[in-house]
Design brief:
The structure is a single chain. 66% of the residues lie in helices and 9% in strands. The protein is an alpha+beta fold and 758 residues long. It has a ten-stranded antiparallel β-sheet with strand order 1-2-3-4-5-8-7-6-9-10. A two-stranded parallel ribbon has the order 11-12. The protein is flat, with a radius of gyration of 66 Å.
C-alpha cells in the first residue's frame, strides 16, 4: 500500500475554488497530523480557513479523500478521488463497499481527469460499514482507453474518522446523515459515472454546497420555532390538563354523582314503603302468633298428665334395647377374638421353635467370630513397625549398596578435601612470594619457581611416581650462575640434565625428596605469576573434585531417602491392613453376638410373656361368654315386656292422637313466630337503609357542589390561557413561512440534482 507521502500532485483547481486547499503532501502548507493503518489525517491552509482531510491510496497511486473545513459548521463533508496517473483517460469511477447495496459514483470535476467529485448518496451508511466491518474497497475506473480496478484498504479508517471528528468537527459526526436523508434521498442508488461530465459534476457540487446552507438555515428556523413553542409550552400543557380535567368532571364525575343521588333518593322511598308495609303487618302477625301459643298450651294441658308414665316406659325400653345391643356386640367380639388369639398363638409357637432350632449354629458362629477377632487383634498388637522397617532395609539390596557407596564416596571426599587444603596452602604461599617479588623486597626463604605440576608434598602423586622425583612445587629454571641438580647439572633423582639454562657453580643441594630449594629471589616475577596461575587452576580443579563428591553424596542420600519413604509406606500399609482386619473381625463378632442376643430375648419374650398373655386373654373371653349370652336373653325378655306395656298405654290413653295434636299446634306456633320475626327484621333493616340513604344524600349533594365549583374554576382558567395562547399564531406565522420557503428551496435544488443526473 502506498503511503500518503508519495502523493505528488495537487487536487485540481476546482477543489481550490470550492474549499480553498490543495491536497499536496509535498506542499509546505500540508501537515500530517496522525496516521493509523493505511489512512492518515492531514491539515492544510485554505483561502477561507484551515482544511482537514483523511485519505488512503491504492497501489496505482489512486487516492480516496474525505474533506471537511476545520470546525466550520457551514461546510459539509466532501468525498473525492485523486488519480496521480490517468494515462488511460478514465472519466468516471465507482466505489464498491462490501455490505452496501449501492455503489458510490465519482465524476470528473474539471475536465483534466485527475480529480473526481463524489455523489454523497448513502455516504453515511458507507462510512459506518467502513468503520465497523473494515472491508476492502474496490474502485472501478470506467471510460477512456481501458477500464481498470484498484483496491483500497480501510485499515485505520475508523481511527482517522474519530480523530477528524474530534479535531476538526467539534466531536460531531463527519457525515450529516439528516442532510443526506433530506437532500440526496431522491437520487437513484446507482448512478452511471459516465454521465457525470465536468459540467454536471461542478453543477452538482455547487448545488450541494448551496443546499447545505439552505439546510442549515432551515434548521435554524426550526430551532426558532421550537423556542417559540417552548415559550408557550407551559400554557399549552396546562390548558391540555385543564381541558382533560374539565371533561372528566363534566362528562364522568358529575353524571356519576347525579346518578348516585337519584339511586339514594330511590332507596329512601323504597325503605319508607317497606317500613310502612311491615308496620301494618306486625299487629296481625302478633295476634296470630298469640293465638297459636294459646292453642298449643291447651293441647299440652290435655297430654301433660300422661307424660310421666309415657316417659318411664319409653326410657326403660330404650335402656333395655341399649343393653341388648351392647351384649350382642360383646358376644360378636368374643366370637371373633378367640380364633384370632388361636392364630396368634400358633404363629408365636412356630416363631419360637424356628429360633430355638437356629440358635445353636448362631452361638457357634459368634464363638468363631470371637476367636477370629482375638487372633487378628493379637496379630495387630504384636506387629513391630520399627523392627519390620529395619528388616526390610536390611533386605533391600539397593539400600545396602547405596550405604556402601556412601562410605566409599565419603572417604574419597575426605581425602580430596585434605588435598584441597594442601593445594590452597601452596597457592597462598606462591601468592605471598609474588606479592613480595612485585614489591621489590627480599622474601625470606625465597625460591625460584617454575610451573606447578602434580606431585607436591600435599598432592596425590601421579601414576608411576617414585621417591626422589620431588613433589609439590617443582623448582623452575635458575638464573645464570645458579645451577642446581636437575637444572643445568647433575641432580639427585631422575631429573636428568637440566630443564633450563643452568650455571656453572654449584647451587644449594635439594632435599632428596624434592621440594623447594631456597635461592635468592629473582628480580623477574613472571615465573611466580605463572606458578600462581597454575596453582589457582589446581585449586579450582580440586574444588570441582570435592564438589563432585558432595553432589554424589547428595544424590545417594536422596535415593536412600526415597527407599526409606517407600519402605515406610509399605510398613504403614501392612499395619493399616492389620487394623482394618481387626475392625472387620470386631464388626463380624458384634453382629453375630447381637443376633444371638436378640434371638434369645425374642424366644424368652414369646415363652414367658406373649404366649401366657394370649392364653390368659382366651380363657377370660371363654369364661365371659356364658354371662354375655345370659345378658342377651334377659334384655330380650325386658324389651318384649316393655313393648307390650307401652302399646297398651298408647291404646288405652289415645296417646298417638293427643301427641299428634300437640305437634301440629307446635308447628303452627313456630310458623307464626317466624312470620312475625321476618316482619320485625324487615322493618328494622328498612329503617337502617333509610338512615344510610339520608346520610349518603347529604354527601352526594356536597360532592356535586364541589364539582360544579371546580368546573367553573377550570373554565375561567381556560379562558385566561386561551387569551395568552392567542398570541402564538402571530409569532410562529413568519417562522412557518420561512421554513416552508427554505423547504421549497431545498426541494428545488434537490430537483436540480435529480434532473442533472438523468
Amino acid at each position: 500500500m502506498l503511503v500518503v507521502g508519495k502523493l505528488k500532485v495537487a487536487l485540481a483547481a476546482t477543489v481550490l475554488m470550492a474549499v480553498g486547499f490543495q491536497a499536496h503532501a509535498g506542499s509546505s502548507s500540508n501537515k500530517k497530523i496522525k496516521e493509523s493503518g493505511d489512512w492518515s489525517l492531514w491539515e492544510t491552509k485554505g483561502t477561507s480557513g484551515d482544511i482537514c482531510y483523511i485519505q488512503s491510496g491504492g497501489e496505482d497511486e489512486t487516492y480516496l479523500v474525505m474533506i471537511k473545513a476545520k470546525n466550520n459548521p457551514k461546510s459539509p463533508v466532501e468525498t473525492m478521488i485523486q488519480m496521480l496517473d490517468n494515462s488511460k483517460g478514465q472519466t468516471g469511477i465507482t466505489v464498491s463497499v462490501p455490505g452496501l447495496a449501492s455503489t458510490l459514483s465519482y465524476g470528473d470535476l474539471d475536465g483534466k481527469k485527475f480529480t473526481f467529485q463524489g455523489i454523497p448518496k448513502n455516504l453515511s451508511q458507507a462510512v459506518e460499514i467502513m468503520k465497523n466491518n473494515k472491508p476492502e474497497l474496490k474502485l472501478s475506473k470506467v471510460g477512456g482507453k481501458k477500464p481498470a480496478e484498484t483496491k483500497i484498504s480501510t485499515r485505520g479508517f475508523k481511527d482517522m474518522v474519530k480523530e477528524l471528528e474530534s479535531r476538526c468537527n467539534a466531536g460531531q459526526p463527519m457525515v450529516d446523515a439528516d442532510f443526506e436523508r433530506q437532500f440526496i434521498n431522491a437520487v437513484a442508488d446507482s448512478i452511471d459515472p459516465l454521465k457525470l461530465d465536468p459540467a454536471k459534476s461542478s453543477l452538482i457540487r455547487s448545488i450541494y454546497f448551496a443546499a447545505y446552507d439552505v439546510m442549515l438555515n432551515k434548521r435554524g428556523a426550526e430551532g426558532e420555532l421550537a423556542q417559540v413553542l417552548q415559550k408557550y409550552q407551559p400554557q399549552v400543557n396546562e390548558l391540555n390538563q385543564n381541558r382533560a380535567r374539565a371533561a372528566a368532571v363534566q362528562n364522568s364525575e358529575l353524571p356519576a354523582a347525579r346518578n348516585d343521588l337519584t339511586q339514594t333518593q330511590t332507596q329512601q322511598a323504597t325503605a319508607r314503603a317497606e317500613i310502612a308495609k311491615q308496620a301494618q303487618a306486625i299487629p296481625g302477625l302478633t295476634s296470630k302468633r298469640d293465638a297459636s301459643q294459646a292453642a298449643l298450651d291447651a293441647a299440652e294441658r290435655v297430654i301433660a298428665p300422661l307424660r310421666p308414665e309415657y316417659n318411664r316406659l319409653t326410657g326403660s325400653l330404650g335402656q333395655a334395647q341399649s343393653e341388648l345391643s351392647s351384649a350382642e356386640s360383646r358376644l360378636s367380639y368374643i366370637d371373633g377374638r378367640v380364633p384370632d388369639l388361636d392364630q396368634q398363638r400358633n404363629a408365636l409357637e412356630n416363631e419360637a421353635y424356628r429360633l430355638e432350632q437356629i440358635l445353636p449354629s448362631q452361638r457357634h458362629e459368634a464363638s468363631m467370630a470371637l476367636s477370629r477377632y482375638n487372633q487378628v487383634s493379637r496379630d495387630r498388637q504384636s506387629y513391630n513397625a520399627q523392627w519390620r522397617r529395619d528388616e526390610m532395609l536390611r533386605q533391600s539390596f539397593e539400600y545396602q549398596r547405596l550405604n556402601q557407596d556412601w562410605q566409599r564416596v565419603s572417604r574419597s571426599m575426605e581425602m580430596a578435601d585434605r588435598e584441597l587444603r594442601g593445594v590452597i596452602r601452596e597457592r597462598d604461599r606462591v601468592a605471598n612470594d609474588l606479592r613480595t617479588c612485585q614489591s621489590g623486597a627480599v622474601a625470606p626463604n625465597a625460591v625460584a619457581v617454575e610451573q606447578l605440576t602434580p606431585g607436591g608434598p600435599h598432592e596425590p602423586k601421579p601414576p608411576g611416581w617414585t621417591p626422589g622425583q620431588g613433589g609439590g612445587l617443582v623448582p623452575g629454571p635458575k638464573p645464570p650462575g645458579h645451577g642446581g641438580p636437575g637444572h643445568g647439572g647433575p641432580g639427585h633423582g631422575p631429573g636428568g640434565p637440566g630443564h633450563g639454562p643452568g650455571g656453572p657453580g654449584p647451587g644449594p643441594q635439594p632435599d632428596p625428596g624434592g621440594g623447594l630449594t631456597p635461592v635468592e629471589p629473582p628480580r623477574d616475577c613472571s615465573q611466580l605469576q605463572n606458578a600462581l596461575q597454575v596453582a589457582n587452576a589446581q585449586v579450582s580443579q580440586k574444588q570441582s573434585e570435592v564438589n563432585g563428591y558432595s553432589s554424589q553424596l547428595r544424590d545417594i542420600e536422596r535415593r536412600r531417602e526415597r527407599i526409606v519413604r517407600d519402605i515406610d509406606m509399605q510398613v504403614d500399609r501392612e499395619y493399616r491392613s492389620l487394623v482394618d482386619a481387626e475392625e472387620q473381625a470386631r464388626r463380624a463378632y458384634d453382629y453375630a453376638n447381637t443376633t444371638v442376643f436378640n434371638n434369645e430375648n425374642r424366644v424368652a419374650q414369646i415363652r414367658r410373656t406373649e404366649l401366657p398373655n394370649i392364653a390368659s386373654e382366651r380363657s377370660q373371653l371363654l369364661n365371659e361368654r356364658p354371662s354375655v349370652l345370659s345378658s342377651i336373653s334377659h334384655a330380650q325378655s325386658d324389651i318384649a315386656s316393655l313393648s307390650n306395656q307401652l302399646n297398651t298405654f298408647r291404646r288405652t290413653n289415645d296417646w298417638d292422637r293427643k301427641e299428634a295434636n300437640v305437634n301440629a299446634k307446635a308447628a303452627q306456633l313456630q310458623q307464626d313466630q317466624s312470620a312475625l320475626n321476618a316482619a320485625t327484621s324487615g322493618k328494622a333493616l328498612a329503617e337502617r337503609t333509610l338512615q344510610n340513604a339520608i346520610a349518603r344524600e347529604g354527601q352526594i349533594n356536597a360532592q356535586i357542589t364541589a364539582l360544579n365549583n371546580e368546573l367553573a374554576a377550570l373554565n375561567n382558567r381556560a379562558v385566561a390561557l386561551n387569551q395568552i395562547l392567542a398570541q402564538l399564531p402571530a409569532e410562529r406565522a413568519p417562522i412557518d413561512q420561512r421554513i416552508a420557503s427554505l423547504a421549497a428551496d431545498l426541494k428545488a435544488r434537490q430537483d436540480q440534482v435529480v434532473n442533472a443526473l438523468k
